[in-house]
Structures are given as C-alpha cells and as structure tokens.
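Entry type: protein chain
Record version: 2
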Amino acid sequence: MQMKKNIFKTYALIVALIGFYSCGDDFLSVNSTEQLAAGAPSTQKAIEQNLASAYQILLFDSYAEGNYNSYILMGDLRSDDIYKGGGDLSDQAGLYYLSQFKNTPSDVPGGWWPIYYTGLSRCNTAIQSCENATADANSEDVARMSAEAYFLRAYYVHHLWKIWGNIPYFDRDIPAPYFAKQYTADQVYTKIMEDLDYACQDHRLPLAANSSTMGRATKPAAQMLRARVAMYQNDSQRYNQILADMVEIINNPAFELMPSLEDVFIASGEFCKESIFETNQKADGKTWGNAWLGFGTNLPAFISPSGLEDPTKAFIGGWGFAPARTQAYQMYHNDDERRGASINDFRSTPYSKRWQDTGFFMRKYAAREGYNAVSSGDRDLNFDNNLRIFRLPEAYLNAAELIIAGASAPGAQSAQNYLDVVRKRAFGHKFDQNKIIATLENVKSERRLEFFGEGLRYWDLVRWGDAERVLTENDPAYAINRTWTAKSKYLPIPQGEVDRTKGMGEFELIQNEY
C-alpha cells in the first residue's frame, strides 16, 4: 500500500513544479492562460503537469479553503444518521445550520465553492493542453489523459450541481472580466453527462488501474459517476444504459467484494479489489496556514471523540464532531457485521463528552493509531485515510434498484441476486435466516446500512423523494428542529459570490431561494 501512495504522490508532486493557482482567489478570475497560452502547443510532460494539478483538488476536500467541509461529512450531516456535535451549537455554527436546512448566504459552508471551481478550471486547462498536444506526444496517452480530465471535471461540477443547482459554468478560458454565465440545474446536468459520455467512450480509459496508476480514473469510475448523476436526476431514459454499465462493472474480473466491510477501511484495504475509485491521501504537508498544500485529510480527527482513551490502542482521540445517532446504531441487526465495521460503540470507553453526544461514533474514517505519523505539516490535518468514493457494492445495489424501476440490459441478473450478494457479505453464515425480498424499500434500507458514514444517505433521500418525510423532525433533546422542503434541495449561493457579480449584466448571479 505504501508503494502505491508514493507512486501517485510522485505524480501529484509535479504540481509543485508549476505551482498552485487560484488558491483562495475569486474562482472566476482563474485564467488558464497563466499556465498555458490559448492554442499553444503542449508537450506530453506539460499535459501530465496540468492533469496532476487537476487531480490535486481531490486532496483538498476536508480542509477546503480553511473550512471543515468534507463532502463525506456534509452528505451525512444533513441525513438522519449523525448529529453535528462539537463544543456547542456555535462551534462550527454553519454546519449546525446546514444540518437544520437553515443556512443563509452569509453562513453557508465556504469551502466547496472555491475548491470545486478551482478543480473545474484546472480540468479545463488539462483538456485544452490535450487538444494542443505536440506531434511527438503519444496519442494513446493523450486520449487517456483527456478522458481523465473530462471525468474529473464532471466529478467536481457534479458536487457544485448537487449543492447549488443553478451555477456558473465554463469549459474554456474566461475572457475579461473573468465571469461566467449562470446555467440552470438541468443545463448543468447535460454538461456533466456530456463529459462522462466522452470519458466512457472509445476505450479512452482503462477497465482497471494497475500498480502504477492507482488513484487515477478508469472507465468503471466514470460509469459509477454517470450512474450517481443520472439516478440523482431521476433520468429514467438513461436507466438501461446505466444498468448496462453496472453489469459491466460487476462482471469485471478486476473487482470483487472483500471478505468483510472492516477489511475495506483499514490501511491494507486501500486500493483493494472492492475499490473502484478513491482519493490518495498521505500523512504529509497540510498546515493550518495553507489549506492548498499537502496530501492528508482532517476528517478522522474531526469525527473522533475528544480525549479518547481506547484500551485496545486501535483508535485515538479527535475533536468530537459528528456523533452517530442512536437510531443509526440500532438499525443494524445483531447478525449484521456492518454495525461493528461502521459505528464505534464508545459508551463504556473514557472520552470527553461533547455536545449532542450519544456514545456512538463513525468508524470507517475514524482516527486510528499510526495513521497520522507526519513527516511535515500538522498532525490533525494529515491523516492518510484514503476516501473511498466508489465501491463495488454500490454497483450491485444500483443494479437492483434500476431493475426494480424497470430497466433492462443484456446479461443482467435479477434484483434479488444483486441484493443477496451484498447481504451475504454482511451476514456470512447467518445469511439464510436474514434474507429479505428485493423490494425498493428494502434496497433503500440496504444502501443506508452498507454506506453509513460514506456521505450518500442525504443525497439518496433527496433523489427518492423521501427527504421531506424523513428529515422533517423535532427533537429538543438534541436541538433538532428542522423542516425539509423543496427549496432545501439547494443551498444559498455564498453572498460574496453574489456581490461580486452585481451590475455585471448577463453574469449577475441569481440567488437560490432559501
């Protein structure tokens, strides 16, 4: 595993040769001509440098622009699985308002907008450099790198799209005054799918990574993102295609479920046979003074109990945010091994209890002993836990859900067979007495059980149309008083971005309803 990290770290370090750009600046003031003059020839080395810069954005998520805005945390924080936690309501208050669907343009989490727009800009530069490749560049390599950049652009934009919906979009250099037009959410969806269709076509991307390309995009990664986006859009016209994608992934000999879920999220499980795409974190480089450098993640420190005294010495303390809800722990059957692999029960373990405490904490990305042995940088920002973005069980459960929705594809098995595969791993020799029928409601429940703590639950509730029913709740004991409505689907655009475009005519941003 360490060899794999070093290989991709060496690739990412190419970024240091060209420097980071747009870090903390106005996202639309990024002009890719700073790195590559429009239309200028690009050597293969220059293309690799620009692509490395685009990949680097994957490592900035947890401390985005100095904000603790991990997309994994944010996807669960608005769900019915965890609380905000921390010191009190005012400790990271924007996250509390997020959990209650009460953000305003002035307190909306501030990290996503700059990092994902910087990612978009860097991908544009990488795509442009591929288009301008010099004659001596290897054509197959250029085609692959172009598809990687299209995938990454779709990945970054899909976050912006899900969070804000109606967003500025640009796919080329932006001329002065460096602003882009705002698109509707449906128009952005079309752009994302065009990028993913490009990445999936003509054998541009490999069917699996090898030992020298771990952490880089593959066709299955692009297919998984295409599924996630199309299913979030409820684009039923795409369902046969998406099911065919899932069947192709399931039948790909490069992928196989690990013996247990616990095996996936420990260090030896990084880039395992179940992993379709994951980030490549390394405990090195991030500092409190510069959120745009380094390779580590802060998520484990953020979600682990403060002052933990673990008698097993497996886990270490953190900041006490994001305690798991008691109901989340109780949703697992006693025979389901995923409970112990997903949630740490620290009710009988000494630690400093903080706000909204339950005694339960997320385990998959928990702070573990030896995972933040930094050579440089600040320890709490530099855990080396890779973030698992796409895992094979999602392909199985996508397939089951699509078949139930009426999709068909050559070689597809039954929804029951696909659901059974996931549950057999979870229940082992007790599977027969825990078998359930493959109904839509059971597949929904299975996704919650399988992906607890991975940032999928909230988005699933929204796309299923279940958010208003499930997420409207009042629990004074845990300071929960929230109502999800249709306008809760999109966050308000940060006020600073709206102010920046005032008086700019066609570029003036229209604020989302909130």
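Comment: Residues 6-35 have pLDDT under 50 and may be disordered.
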